[in-house]
Amino acid sequence: MRHNCTADEKPHEIAYERIVEKHLEMDPTETMTAIKVHLRRNPHLFSHLSAVAQCIGVYTVNDYIDILEFLIGWWRLKKLEGLTSEGKRA
Fold first, then answer.
1. Which residues, including other chains, have CB under 8 Å from residue 53's CB and lie 6 or more apart?
2. What residue stretch is flagged as signal peptide (predicted)?
C-alpha cells in the first residue's frame, strides 16, 4: 500500500499559508525579502525537489506550478502594498 504523502502535507500547507499571510500583514518588505533569500539560498532547490518528487510520484512540475500560483494568489502578492523598493524587487 502506497503512503499518501499529499494528505500528510495538508496541515503543513495550511500552517505555512497562514503564517506567511500574517507576516505579510505585519511587515511585507521583510517577508518578501525572506522569501527571496529562502528561494535563492540554493539556486537548484526547485530542480532537486521536483526531480525527487517526480521520481517517487508525489508531485510533478505542474503540481509545483499550481502550488506557486495558488500561493501567489492567496497571499495577494501582485497587489501587496506597503513595500519598500527592496520589497518590490524581492
1. 59, 60, 63, 64
2. none
